[in-house]
Amino acid sequence: MFIDSAKINVRGGSGGKGCKSFYRDKYQRRGVADGGDGGKGADIIIQADHNLLTLLDFQHHRHFFGSHGGHGSGNHKKGRSAEDIIIRVPLGTIIQDEATGSILRDLNASGEQVIVARGGRGGLGNWHRKAEEAEPGEPGEEKTLILDLKLLADVGVVGFPNAGKSTLISAISNAHPKIAPYPFTTTGPILGVVNSGNKKFVIADIPGLISGASEGRGLGDKFLKHVERTRVLIHLLDMAGFEGRDPVNDYKNINLELKNFSLEVYKKPQVICANKMDIEGADENLKRFKKLIKKPVYPISALEKNNLEELIDAVAKKL
Ligand SMILES: Nc1nc2c(ncn2[C@@H]2O[C@H](COP(=O)(O)OP(=O)(O)OP(=O)(O)O)[C@@H](O)[C@H]2O)c(=O)[nH]1
Ligand SMILES: [Mg+2]
Questions:
Q1: Which residues are CB-neighbours of 223 under 8 A, at least 6 positions away?
Q2: What is the CATH number of domain 155-318?
Q3: Candidates 158, 160, 166, 167: which one to mutate for ligand 1, based on the most atoms within 8 Å of Cβ?
Q4: Which of 20, 24, 95, 185 sits CB 3.0–4.6 Å from 134 for a disulfide?
Q5: 317 Cα distance to chain centroid
Q6: Whose CA is nearest to atom 21 of ligand 1?
Q7: Domain ranges of the chain
Q8: Which pLDDT does position 226 carry in this prediction?
Q9: pLDDT tens digits for 225-265?
Q10: What's the fold here for domain 5-149?
Q11: Cα separation of the two ends of the chain
Q12: What whole-number distance in Å separates Cα of residue 257 and Cα of residue 250?
């Protein structure tokens, strides 16, 4: 199961209480204030970790409460500071404060950290002249956060269901998504690494799009956000028109859905790829396609692994 968003509740630990205490020996009529300060409460920190791939853990574990700082004690002794809590999330996680809607951070580098809820300051002990009474610790910050994962891939493969996106990804990368002759086989995004000669890039297989995806048809466009941060798109077409579809219309329709989703995605450089060239009739379709669309097209057969090097080269060049 691919979970790409989660909601969590975080609260920093409260600060420890300051201490009220007086030191007195037998010669002193009035004691000397010597109550120490409270320690600081735990911060809640979110850290990006490249070993994680999903936000699945947060389905079960949603509350992260920091422990409070130690209380101060006599003889100027400061309470201990609480240990911070570190929450690990996959690279590419966007953290949003639910109450304000503001994006706290977009974690893109492994190890990058952000404090999402500060622990409270410890209260002052009565040894401070300004604090006649010992103070209580401050409460920690509390927030509800929305975590959203956008995959970080260099290349996204877009196309109609059954165009052969998963077949292509398993032919050129280390990923092996399920392949089947029915639409919407792929129900969540999948990442693969292409490693060919001196060329290396990360490629994302996303579920198929259909006309009306931007209005929620099929699996809708909810997975398209995963291509927002890619740099190049492979626009994969079933050039054989195997299911009675017309590749020229498919090409236009997918572009229309991309445009409805976001202009930025629509404007990304595309490598147009004609798949299923091993099937009869694909050649004629390709001729017609070239005549009408007038853009470079890379003919391949993902199934028979034909011309894949040429495609990888073209993608690497665009990158
Ligand atoms: N003849 C032929 N069949 C292909 C080729 N590429 C894919 N197929 C077949 O097309 C069907 C769909 O392939 P998938 O790779 O699952 O297609 P997809 O685009 O990932 O489909 P969804 O995940 O449903 O969007 C499968 O039966 C594949 O074997 C090709 O180059 N030639
Ligand atoms: Mg697929």
A1: 188, 189, 206, 207
A2: 3.40.50.300
A3: 167
A4: 20
A5: 26
A6: 162
A7: 5-149, 155-318
A8: 77
A9: 778 878 999 999 999 997 788 999 999 999 999 999 999 99
A10: Spo0b-associated Gtp-binding Protein; Chain: A, (2.70.210)
A11: 30
A12: 11
